């Protein structure tokens, strides 16, 4: 699959990273080749997401790309009021979806109403969720406003009947 991660899906399966990629059914889920495996540490997340597997049908194309990788380092506060996304991309009707990528934030405090996402793509065979890590000072964080946005590393849903969807990724906080 396409993407920098080690969990590329094969034979139309979804890529894996924080969560295992989706595949045709439980038999494929527990065997190789098949769904992209979970890989890498929860904190700090070290790589981009993994691509989905190339389709096996005559009309198939490459799988969706894995999500990207972002690291933010701040001396003091990080306030997120927009969206940061390292989501995977969907493949075509016969190929696997990419897994979510990784976002790592190092700061004293983390606040805001924005969204932080590393979701696996959803379509034919869903990609596994990515990895999010927000490393803050627990004492300083306790004395400030809590973030109110959405933090998500969801696995992508597999659309094919009987298929297993991508697994949830990881969220890490001290």
Mean pLDDT over all positions: 87
What is the percent of helical residues? under 10%
Q: C-alpha Rg, in Å?
A: 16 Å
Cα separation of the termini: 32 Å
**Derived structural class:** mainly beta
Give the neighbour order of strands across the main sheet: 1-4-7-9
Low-confidence stretches: none
Note the quaternary state here: single chain
Task: Tell me the strand percentage band.
Answer: 15-25%
Folded structure, characterized:
The chain has 174 residues and is mainly beta. 5% of the residues lie in helices and 18% in strands. Strands 1-4-7-9 form a 4-stranded parallel beta sheet, with no helix packed on it. Strands 3-6-8 form a 3-stranded parallel beta sheet, with no helix packed on it. Strands 2-5 form a two-stranded parallel sheet.
Write the SSE topology.
Elements: H1 26-29, E1 69-73, E2 77-79, E3 83-85, E4 102-106, E5 109-111, E6 115-117, E7 131-135, H2 138-142, E8 151-152, E9 170-172
Parallel strand pairs: 1-4, 2-5, 3-6, 4-7, 6-8, 7-9
Summarize the structure.
With 174 residues, this protein is mainly beta. The chain has 2 helices and 9 strands, in the order αβββββββαββ.
Key terms for this structure?
3-stranded parallel beta sheet; 174 residues; 9 strands; mainly beta
């Amino acid at each position: 699959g396409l993407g920098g991660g080690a969990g590329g899906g094969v034979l139309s399966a979804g890529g894996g990273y924080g969560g295992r990629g989706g595949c045709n059914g439980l038999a494929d889920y527990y065997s190789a080749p098949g769904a992209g495996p979970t890989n890498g540490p929860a904190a700090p997340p070290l790589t981009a997401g993994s691509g989905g597997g190339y389709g096996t049908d005559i009309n198939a194309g490459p799988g969706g790309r894995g999500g990207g990788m972002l690291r933010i380092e701040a001396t003091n506060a990080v306030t997120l009021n927009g969206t940061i996304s390292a989501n995977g991309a969907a493949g075509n009707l016969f190929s696997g979806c990419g897994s979510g990528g990784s976002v790592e934030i190092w700061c004293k405090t983390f606040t805001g109403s924005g969204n932080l996402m590393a979701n696996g793509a959803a379509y034919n065979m869903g990609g596994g969720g990515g990895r999010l890590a927000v490393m803050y000072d627990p004492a300083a964080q306790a004395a400030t406003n809590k973030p109110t946005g959405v933090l998500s590393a969801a696995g992508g849903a597999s659309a094919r009947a009987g298929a297993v969807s991508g697994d949830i990724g990881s969220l890490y906080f001290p």
